[in-house]
Amino acid sequence: MRPKLEEHDKLEDGVRVRLTKLEKKLLVERCREEGYRNLSDFCRAKLVKRREIKKVEVSREFVIIIKKLDYDLNLNQVSKAINSQQIYHPLAADQMVFQQLLKELRNCFSVLQNYMDVIE
To answer: Which residues of the chain, if any, have pLDDT below 70?
Structure first.
């Protein structure tokens, strides 16, 4: 059962707008592209509210870095390997791997920071 809405939050009134088939198709596409759940939410956001969803487009470099991290860096596996032994003494090879991971994380952080600066 849905929770009761406050009187000012109830969606009771409607507006009818006539569109061509092409206009509606374009509107629905734009609604999907911008990540809205449905056409009503999209129209309310565009007509009345401030923009609720910020769409951030990322560069090819960012996508490559994220995919590499997803493939190379699985922190759960690393921490499990470390914690599965009673006493773990990192070897020189382990330290090199951790240094490489740290370098990749710093690189990702730098790219993410650039995008955050653009958003703000």
So the answer is: 1-2, 50-56, 70-79, 81-82, 85-90, 117, 119-120
Q: How far apart are CA 46 and CA 2, in angstroms?
A: 26
Residue with tokens 């499990």: 80
For residues 105, 109, 115, 117, the Cα torsion angle rounded to the nearest 10 degrees is -170
Distance CA 44, CA 25 (A): 18
Query: What is 2-62 written as a DSSP string?
Result: PPPPPGGG-----------HHHHHHHHHHHHHTT-SSHHHHHHHHHTSPP--------HHH
Domain ranges of the chain: 7-47, 60-119
Q: pTM score > 0.85 for this model?
A: no
- Alpha carbon distance 108, 113 (integer Å): 8
Q: Which two tokens stand for residue 59?
A: 């560069």
Please give the C-alpha separations between residue 118 and each of 60, 102, 111, in angstroms, as whole numbers. Answer: 16, 25, 11
Name the strand (E) or helix (H) holding 65: helix 60-72
